[in-house]
Design brief:
Elements: E1 2-5, E2 9-13, H1 20-35, E3 41-44, H2 60-69, E4 79-81, H3 85-91, E5 97-98, E6 101-102, H4 103-110, H5 115-123, E7 128-131, E8 135-138, H6 145-148, H7 154-159, H8 163-168, H9 178-185, H10 188-198, H11 202-205, H12 208-219, E9 231-234, E10 243-246, E11 250-253, E12 266-271, H13 279-283, E13 286-288
Parallel strand pairs: 1-7, 2-3, 3-4, 8-9, 9-11
Antiparallel strand pairs: 2-12, 5-6, 7-8, 10-11, 12-13
Organism: Labilibaculum manganireducens
Domain Calcineurin-like phosphoesterase: 9-170
Protein name: Calcineurin-like phosphoesterase domain-containing protein
């Protein structure tokens, strides 16, 4: 569940949350960049689904169907979709709340007829993406668990598969059952995945989060000490003006949900072979989506 990119240029976007308008703009921009030889991969940073009520029409289902149709995450595809917490909860039947909002059941009602296809797409989403030049890309950023929980190392991330949990409940694949989620959350794997994909970054950990960024970069470099991860790119938390640096080694990107307005939404364009020494160098590679 780790994707390694050795060469080419990556257009990276984050947290669409069912915004079909932004999704179509991203496809247009990527198509133009690709035709001009300026981009080779389109990377979605997770949380493709679950619109916030009242903000725009929820096109989560239609977006996923379009990505499946284009062969995203299949071998040889130039479209890569990383796993976000909003996708994770459907794999494991976990109710996801934000205040009075309960996201999971709403989307489950929409995908009832084709739930198996949707979940199979979600379970193929990598946790991490690494470039040859040392940029680490993931949905939620870092957590205290990367340094603290030794039994889940980089090899565990590489080999981990959701398939076991998926096939264990294949007979009821078309039914959303929160009891399954409750049982999974009581496992060591469930507790760990919830923490690394659902934490609040510096809003939760304060200044200690800066060290956690370095911990994650070190964690993700375990099998490549001669070409370590140097910078981190994530989404997960909104940014008013589309992108911001978090310390010296992290860029937070916001391409849709979480921006003040459309004209602030950003995408990141980087070269997989290039080394970006710090977050400011990544910030300079951000561009307006509109």
């Amino acid at each position: 569940m780790i994707c390694d990119i050795q060469d080419g240029r990556l257009m990276i976007v984050s947290d669409l949350h069912g915004n079909g308008f932004d999704f179509r703009q991203i496809l247009r921009v990527y198509g133009k960049l690709k035709s001009e030889g300026k981009a080779d991969y389109l990377v979605f940073l997770g949380d493709l689904i679950h619109a916030y009520p009242g903000r725009q029409k929820d096109e989560s289902l239609e977006m996923i169907q379009e990505l499946i149709k284009t062969g995203a995450n299949q071998k040889g595809s130039d479209v890569i979709c990383l796993l976000g917490n909003h996708e994770l909860v459907h794999i494991y039947h976990i109710p996801l709340h934000r205040g009075n909002l309960e996201f999971t059941s709403w989307f489950e009602n929409r995908i009832r007829k084709n739930r198996e296809e949707m979940i199979r797409f979600f379970i193929d989403m990598p946790f991490l993406l690494r470039t040859k030049g040392g940029v680490l890309v993931c949905h939620a950023g870092s957590s205290d668990r990367y340094a603290r929980t030794k039994e889940f190392d980089l090899n565990w991330f590489r080999q981990y598969s959701h398939e076991g949990e998926f096939t264990a409940h294949i007979e009821s694949i078309h039914t959303y059952d929160p009891q399954i989620g409750s049982l999974f959350m009581d496992t060591a794997e469930g507790d760990y995945l919830w923490d690394v994909l659902m934490n609040g970054n510096e809003r939760q950990y304060g200044e200690e989060y800066l060290k956690m960024i370095d911990d994650l970069l070190q964690f993700a470099s375990a099998d490549r000490q001669n070409s370590p991860m140097r910078t981190l790119v994530s989404g997960h938390i909104g940014v008013d003006y589309g992108a911001e640096t978090i310390g010296a080694h992290k860029l937070r990107l916001c391409s849709s949900a979480g921006c003040l307005r459309d004209l602030e939404k950003k995408y990141l364009l980087i070269d997989a072979e290039k080394t970006y020494a710090n977050s400011m160098e990544l910030l300079e590679c951000c561009h307006d989506l509109f």
